[in-house]
Amino acid sequence: MSDRGVVWLGSPSFPEAARTALADQQLRTNLRRATTTIRDKRLAVAAELDDWEELRTAAEAIKRRTARHLDRYLLQLEEAVTAAGGSVHWAGDAAEANRIVAALIQATGEREVVKIKSMATQEIGLNEALALEGITAYETDLAELIVQLGEDRPSHILVPAIHKNRTEIRDLFAAEMAHWGEPAPEGLSDDPRELAEAARRHLRKKFLAAKVAVSGANFAVADTGTVTVVESEGNGRMCLSLPETLITVMGIEKVVPTWSDLEVFLQLLPRSSTGERMNPYTSTWTGVTEGDGPSQFHLVLLDNGRTDTLADTVGRQVLACIRCSACLNVCPVFERTGGHAYGSVYPGPIGAVLTPQLVGVEQAASLPFASTLCGACYDACPVKINIPEVLAHLRAEVVEAKRHPLSPEALAMKAAATVLDSPRLLSAAQKAASLGGRVLAREGRIGRLPGPLHGWSDTRDSPAPPAESFRTWWRKNREGTP
Amino acid sequence: MRIALFITCFNDTLYPGTGRAVLTVLERLGHTVDFPQEQTCCGQMHFNTGYRPEAAPLVARFARAFADYDAVVTPSASCAGMIRENHPVLAEQYGSTSLQQQVAELVPRVYEFTEFLTDVLKVTEVGARFPHKVAYHPTCHSLRGLRLGDRPLRLLRAVKDLDLVELPSADSCCGFGGTFAVKNADTSSAMLADKAAGVLASGAEVLCAADNSCLMHIGGGLSRQGSGVRTMHLAEILAGAEGEKR
Amino acid sequence: MSSRETILARIRGALADVPAEEGPEHVAVERAYRRSHLEPGQDPVELFAERVADYRATVHRAAPEDVPAVIARALTERGVGRLALPSGFPTELLPGGSRQWQSEPLTVPELEALDGSVTLAAVGIAVTGTIVLDAGPGQGRRALSLVPDYHLCVIRAEQIADDLPDALARLDPARPLTFISGPSATSDIELDRVEGVHGPRTLDVVIVEQSVEQSVEQS
User: Fold this and answer.
1) Residues of chain C neighbouring A196 (CB-CB closer than 8 A)
2) Cβ neighbours of residue A154 closer than 8 Å, sequence gap 6 or more
3) pLDDT average, residue stretch C136-164
4) Using CB atoms within 10 A as the burial measure, which of B118, B202, C147, C207 is most buried?
């Protein structure tokens, strides 16, 4: 398989990484605080729209239409962007996209670029690839800046530094800003307003001097060639309007058919992501405009596993994702483990269904199991991706891909299936369990167990099986045939 | 109406009292309930763990065992959800056209216990008395799978002398998730700790739900903590008749 | 084969289940959502003012003849004296006094040295409290309302659309558009919103009420 990035090589499996994360009390506190705040806000602004379900249904349908005719819409987009003075490039995988972007930057003669937060460029590891070419990419989104200054990894789609609290951010700014440019002011406090001010001062000169910017895209409209970036801080506007050259990397699934389709997504996205009626800034542009903004615009269309995802008729729905991260914020697993445990640029429920499809299930085999299938993600998803359905589907693919007839799990599952397909064997097994269970039990409860069940029994007692199963009781009492 | 009880393999083995409670309630309401003995398991564990081929024969068995009944009632929201959502999927993936048809015909006649009482029998008052403080945990499959809504609460509110108390963060998952509790035991335990804390904060003497699997998990944690809070299936509370000793 | 051809071929291969005769129009998109979330009888201008203020922007409502005075008062309160003035901004709206109005061409460092900018808008959106700039007359290019730390935007009441669908229909996507909902903000610290990052940290919006004659003309 070609190099697709997405996952962090050498990451432990989810259960192992989760164990480490769960032991970090500060992380647990930070995550709980942040996810609780955003959940309440999201529910409040979604409830303002009494047609929220109709909007979700329309969004899902628009995305389905797009996916089923993706080739047509991409060609239409290419034509419209080109007609408006932009250039379109196609990248099969991460490595090719990085080569294209590096070459475009080199052609300008610049060694520094400013960047708008973008999942696509995280996915392909663009900053690292550019560094190898001697090009420095400065992240300008506050959370991405925090991650970059801390040589950290993102742990959330919308707020990559969600794992850090204000005090940790203050300490990081005080220690690291000076190495990258404008230092943090003396006596910086952990008041978020002061931290935002410090970020403003740190990046100001970079914005004003930048000749090249790199962005992602939230949407690209096929019929008009219009590209859209949704943001809050104004760093996006800086990158999109001050430099001479703009390079946008977008996944091929980000295309939407028409300008008016945005009326659905621009209502759903801010409410689902930051819990606002509208995010502070949304920018749209179509090619280049004489006298306003960059004179060179390049759009890089990225596949990197998306066509493989498209080929799976169940998994395909995941391509509808608009990266709002509502599913992360409502996920009881994410709330406790945080994003790093997923070992992927895409954490949380959406990451658990997207990552294995982008890189192949064998490269992320523990992720489809990192869920209780509680369904909170599906309810929250503004484009109605049935994440539990895809999780269950991918679990079957993992089992199929890794199927070894002699693995303990496969043997147990096979044995259970044989017993469960026979009332006679089930009855016999119940009798055996009843005897065995009562040997283990003290006062009707079974305590700690050895072997594979220790994880279960470390924190829970189990009930001792009853003297007789229901079917035995029924035969004795209702049929008179013990 | 010919009513069959689908006890589920889990309740059959570990919680036969829940099955007897379902019988008690339905019989008190004047219905006859049958227990087809060819029944075993809905295949949920295999399906959710990724062992679909192993689950497929269980779908065929379920369809055979219950083909002749007007209503199949089960005291498990997650098994009802499995049948409703995934039996058609498995039948399509592995079954013959005739199995697909049998499944399609049977699925609409399968009811979770509180659905059957409120939607089909149209009762909420079942003649129960239960003089205790009770909290209700809406399991994920009750809440977001089957969308049981307030059906269980309507039934509980009609129980004489029952003091229904609110469960904090009721709609959060308890962390069971079937094999999740074994594969991701640490995360599951962390979720369990929060759920157990909520139960204790509610002041309930008894925690009930429409699924014994989640209750086994939560009850196991409460028991390990020595909390003294009991867990009971909702059906067992509804079976407690006035004057009758439980 | 180029990557373009490869990707297109992969897409077509992946969509083998889509019948050849199916066109995009055969995939139904039910648009049962509301075109507007305004309640019957609700005043869009009133709602717009309320929603803009929710973002901690300051809203002023003024009759046409009072606009220069309202702008003057806002600028004085903010202590803003040197401003970028986009070409096409109606001079009759400008207050007198000792302020410096800088016209294009302005370099980025020149913009950075100014206190603020005053612009018109293309469209407003009542439900979301959003102003949209399309770089048309009186609005200037995008940098103008971005680099200075203060932005005062003058919008006429009749430019305010009820909701997003109507607003998008009024806009021309070929133009560079900026949707502005309050001052620059971030939710990146503990997922809680604080105002004031890279964009203008202070946003004043002046709504020019319709004069009586205009209302009569429209009805």
Assistant:
1) 186, 189, 194, 196-197
2) A122, A143, A144, A147, A160, A161, A339, A345
3) 97
4) C147
Distance CA A262, CA A259 (A): 6
User: pLDDT tens-digit profile of A161-202?
Assistant: 989 999 999 999 999 999 999 999 999 999 999 999 999 999
> Is the CB of residue A387 less than 8 Å away from at least one CB of chain C?
no
Q: What is the CATH number of domain C38-218?
A: 3.40.50.10420
Q: Of the candidates A267, A283, A306, which is a domain's last residue?
A: A306
- Tell me the chain B residues in contact with residue A423 when contact means C-beta distances shorter than 8 Å: 37-40
Interchain CB distance below 8 Å, C33 and A146: no
- Looking at residue B246, its pLDDT comes to 36
Determine the distance in angstroms separating the CA of A88 from the nearest CA of chain C, rounded to an integer. 10
| Non-local CB neighbours of C121 within 8 Å, separated by 6+ positions | C131, C132, C133, C139, C153, C154, C155, C159
A322: in domain: no
A297 and A428 belong to one structural domain:
no
Classify residue B239 by burial, with Cβ atoms within 10 Å: 0-12, 13-18, 19+. Answer: buried
- pLDDT mean over C11-21: 97
Q: Which domain holds residue A156?
A: 14-306
CA B119/CA B127 separation, integer angstroms: 18
Residues C179 and C133: their CA atoms lie apart, in Å, by 7
Residue A438: its pLDDT value, please? 79
**pLDDT (average), residues B205-230:** 95
Rounded to the nearest angstrom, the minimum Cα separation between A165 and chain C is 6
- A288 in a structural domain: yes
* A61/C contact by beta carbon, under 8 A: yes
| C181-217 pLDDT, tens digit each | 999 999 888 877 888 899 999 999 999 998 666 655 5
- Domain final residue pick, A306, A330, A362: A306
Give me the pLDDT at residue B22, please: 98
Single-letter residue type at C180: I
Q: Across the interface, do B186 and A375 touch by the CB < 8 Å criterion?
A: no
Cross-strand bridge partners of residue A215:
A248
* CA–CA min distance C212, chain A (Å): 32
Q: Is residue A430 part of a domain?
A: yes
Residues A74, A72: Cα–Cα separation, whole Å: 6
Confidence (pLDDT) at B171 = 95
How far is residue C52's CA from residue C59's CA, in Å, rounded to a whole number?
7
| Co-location of A87 and A230 in the same domain | yes
Q: Provide the pLDDT for residue C177.
A: 98
Mean pLDDT for chain A overall: 94
Percent of chain C residues topping a pLDDT of 70? 96
Q: Is residue A361 part of a domain?
A: no
Q: Is the domain of A143 the same as that of A268? A: yes
* ipTM score for this prediction: 0.95
Q: What is the pLDDT of residue C212?
A: 60
Domains, in order of start, for chain B: 3-120 (no CATH), 133-239 (3.40.50)
Apex CA A122: angle with CA A4 and CA A175, to 5°? Answer: 135
A and C: number of Cβ contacts within 8 A: 263
Q: How far apart are CA C44 and CA B174, in angstroms?
A: 45
Domain range list for chain C: 38-218
CB count within 10 Å of CB A414 equals: 15
